[in-house]
Amino acid sequence: MKTRITEMLGIEHPIVQGGMHFVGFAELAAAVSNAGGLGIITGLTQKTPELLAKEIARCREMTDKPFGVNLTFLPTFATPPYPEYIQAIIEGGVRAVETAGRNPEAYMAQMKAAGIKVIHKCTSVRHSLKAEAIGCDAVSVDGFECGGHPGEDDVPNFILLPRAAEELKIPFIASGGMADGRSLVGALALGAEGINMGTRFMATKEAPIHENVKKAIVAASELDTRLIMRKLRNTERVLNNSGVDRLLQIEREKGDALKIDDIVDQVAGIYPKVMIDGDMEAGAWSCGMVAGLIHDIPSCKELVDRIMSQADEIINKRLAGMSRG
Ligand SMILES: Cc1cc2nc3c(=O)[nH]c(=O)nc-3n(C[C@H](O)[C@H](O)[C@H](O)COP(=O)(O)O)c2cc1C
């Protein structure tokens, strides 16, 4: 399949793996890229730019296909040394960066001078237009159903994607709720040039996370995610567990007076406990509603091949048949 995104990124299939904290290590990124999609290493999971450089080198040993790095611009007290992270990306020969969180404008010149394709992930049409205006090459449009931070507008992809198509000139990728060939064809029909998947890629053989996490995703239904931190305007969609129950109880009790310190035990330092130790009750970790569509743990290649053959079947048999009457 050829789209503006496959052409831009030099990949075979229009399928991207979104950056995921403590999930997007070299093993997963390489497996997705070897399957013909674009794998992405999560930059800030590597504690220093030097460690990111090593992770990029490790990924390069596992694949000769293009892969990218995610850089998330968070509202933190101690700002990570982003220019040094970007330098590691450039020196590692990486040609695509997924930015997310805050506006990446301050770092665009450094990335564009090195010829990097910048895909900014955002949750609204207005932020997508801003990304286009500051020179991003593409955007990933993350609908309300997505795992992680869906923003505060609560617009699901059936509205958000065609709205993005109405306004944007640069190509965009549909993100949030994508799982299979049906998602891909639906996203293309709504104007996207490809799909970005997070949660679905966690439940794969190569995802370097504890088996408990993969099994929890397979066991979960579309009803099992919760939205946390709404009052802090830092909404996150997470899989429900007893830690999240406690967190939501505190949120209810505190109401408008809620501060991040009130819930820090359920949100800080949780990722290694879940992803490495497999402690499924530890607290909040991002997970999409798409868990309801995830029923197995295939290899990345099996998954990508299945998506592409299902998409082909839908386009050339089901839809073509309907269109012929
Ligand atoms: C466990 C997990 C961790 C994530 N961490 C990040 C992150 O560090 N930076 C980021 O930009 N997006 C992060 N995301 C969001 C994904 O890149 C992607 O946008 C999202 O998962 C898409 O929705 P889906 O899960 O429905 O596919 C994370 C998602 C998950 C599930």
UniProtKB/TrEMBL annotation:
InterPro entries: Aldolase_TIM (IPR013785), NMO (IPR004136). Transmembrane segments: none annotated. PANTHER family: 2-NITROPROPANE DIOXYGENASE (PTHR32332), 2-NITROPROPANE DIOXYGENASE-LIKE PROTEIN (PTHR32332:SF20). This is Nitronate monooxygenase. The keyword Coiled coil does not apply. SUPFAM superfamilies: Inosine monophosphate dehydrogenase (IMPDH). It comes from Quisquiliibacterium transsilvanicum. It holds the Pfam family NMO. Keywords: Flavoprotein, FMN, Monooxygenase, Oxidoreductase. It is an enzyme of class 1 (oxidoreductase). GO terms for molecular function: nitronate monooxygenase activity. The keyword Transferase does not apply. Its EC number is 1.13.12.16.
